[in-house]
């Protein structure tokens, strides 16, 4: 049987660390429900369902990266953050990961907290912070939007990958002989290339949606270019 | 309503991607899997043949199930198997996410079209604690209907 695993498989991280991150992920998702409710209205709810379904679909589309034997696929954190906001966006990614683990055997169920932390919490948070920063300094043109999406997506993937390295440092089951840096380096290089693909897909999708229905792009609604102090969702930027 | 037009259109795109394009995806392990195989030798089928690497610690999935690994158990046609599992996944994800978000959404502030009356205190349709409804004034950009 061909295995098409894309997320953390069982046995890779030990039980206690997996359980710790399950608690972290659960707490983070509960907070996202609290904050996301303020964003969710009759317009955003169906859009968020679509974003989750779209990310599920695109995550199936592994693309080859620089070496012949390695592929990558969209994680979708920055895409979700841009289209439906950080709180609902994180919940979208979490739903996708839960469906993949429970129904498609992709990623261990016991490892769900680790994956949710990396892809729904870290990647979405990093992505949205960059979006909030870049959308304020870049012009509101298709190019500005594309650059914002590309950079936010690329960085979010690399940082998310480093989340896994941290988890492996805490609870990896194989003895790397003290060579965690080797794993970190491999993960960083692979995900830098995957990040380029992620950036291109994210930019193309966001620019397309902005062209068809700009009112459906959360980041364009919530982040007013010339109105600081009214944005409640982002701290630390300006 | 235009909102639903966009959602239906987007869903069709997602179904096409998961149902057809997915068959042309790269079969190679992704960045995470590949990183965990560093140090091992792998044969053409992707099975580990020797060496030492983190991926050797992998254990069986708890559930598996009829759709495990993005295929339909018992369906020999690989194209159909991948495509149908993708279609089911898109529909399931949309139903689950859309359903949860629909239940979680804020009650309409304008005239409520529901026959149950303008508002029944706090939305009690989920087990999630509501944020006391005090944040609605926080948002300066109350969504204005864009269509004429």
TrEMBL record, chain A:
Keyword NADP attached: no
InterPro entries the record matches: CbiM/NikMN
The membrane topology noted for this protein in its Swiss-Prot or TrEMBL record is: Multi-pass membrane protein
Keywords of the record, alphabetical order, are: Cell membrane, Membrane, Transmembrane, Transmembrane helix, Transport
Fetch the Pfam families from UniProt. CbiM (PF01891)
Q: What Gene Ontology terms describe where this protein resides (cellular component)?
A: plasma membrane
**Cellular localisation:** Cell membrane
GO biological process entries:
transition metal ion transport
Specify the superkingdom. Answer: Bacteria
Q: What is this protein called?
A: Cobalamin biosynthesis protein CbiM
Source organism: Micromonospora endophytica
From TrEMBL, chain B:
Q: Which UniProt keywords apply?
A: Cell membrane, Membrane, Transmembrane, Transmembrane helix
Reply yes or no: does the keyword Transmembrane apply: yes
Cell location: Cell membrane
Tell me the superkingdom of the source: Bacteria
Q: What is its main location?
A: membrane
What's in the GO CC field? plasma membrane
What the entry lists under InterPro entries is as follows: PDGLE_dom
The molecule here is called Cobalamin biosynthesis protein CbiM
- The source organism is Micromonospora endophytica
